[in-house]
Known about the structure:
By secondary structure, the protein is α+β, with helices and mostly antiparallel strands. The chain folds into two domains: 2-182; 233-313, no CATH class. 31% of the residues lie in helices and 19% in strands. The protein is built from eight helices and ten strands. The strands form two sheets. Strands 1, 2, 3, 4, 5, 6 and 7 form a seven-stranded mixed sheet that branches. The chain has a three-stranded mixed sheet with strand order 9-8-10. The longest helix has 18 residues, at 264-281.
Amino acid sequence: MLVVYRADNLDQLQPYRQRWDELAGECLFRQWTWLSTWWKHYHSEADSSSRLLARKRDLCVLLVVDTPDNRPKRASDPPKKWPLWNADDSPMGPIRPEAIRAIAPYYLERSISRGNLLGMMGDGEVCSDCLSLLLDEDSSPESISTLARSLCQHSCQWDLLKMSSIEARDRGIQALLYELQQQGCHVERDVAPSRWLLELPDCWDDFLAILSKSHRKKLRKLLRKTVEQGRIRWYLASIDPKATKETRPPVDHSTFCQALPAPLDRAREILIDLHQRRRQSLGEPGCFASDTYSKFHQEVMLHLLEDLVHYPVL
Length: 314
């Protein structure tokens, strides 16, 4: 039997970080590092309509848990509030990580204009891509049905469920929307700006093969003038070498041919300068004009480097 719990404190989920990432898959924006850092910086955010007001958010991560056969019988009427997550003190005893079948990483925001809003962790100005439900593929249909039923049973807790930064072809989200419609919820869909991806071949020679003869000639000429003559070099951003050995992660520099180490702080300064100059030339303030975004970005870059995400610098 599947039961939905609510976690209102990320510290409670820290022991289940590995399970979270297993369900998130390879998408960085769904993983623990990105979303937990986002929550740290954005759980309280100034309202764009009035810089004097702050939007207070409460964590509302919904976990679909597979309970054992000796579970207590459920009451005929569900409680008005979701049962709170307490992995060590549940009626079923300690909950094993693999018993978590799905995670809906939501937050609850209350406002006069929109009422109680359920939003996706990672949304807003940080521009996360491909946010979604975190699903165990073996039990996803049942988990989605259970989640939709629980959302409707506890509809007094929320007025609007806003899911942004979602791929149109996301099967988990589409299945959830279908289930919510079947249970009487009104669903609206909106088209967001396109997300541009460039699929590259596995090796350099294969990349050259897809170019026209004239483009290959121009590219080889450019490489001779720059790379072969040492006018440009590759660097690999790393944690400050002055940091203690215990705080520095092991990084395999051999995976980047002829890449030299560069301090992460310096690499970030270059990134910010390039981004801000480009956006401001278009009459936009740029992402780093936001103090909250800048602090989030600084911390998440460090955490991701510790998770062995690499930042090449040209």
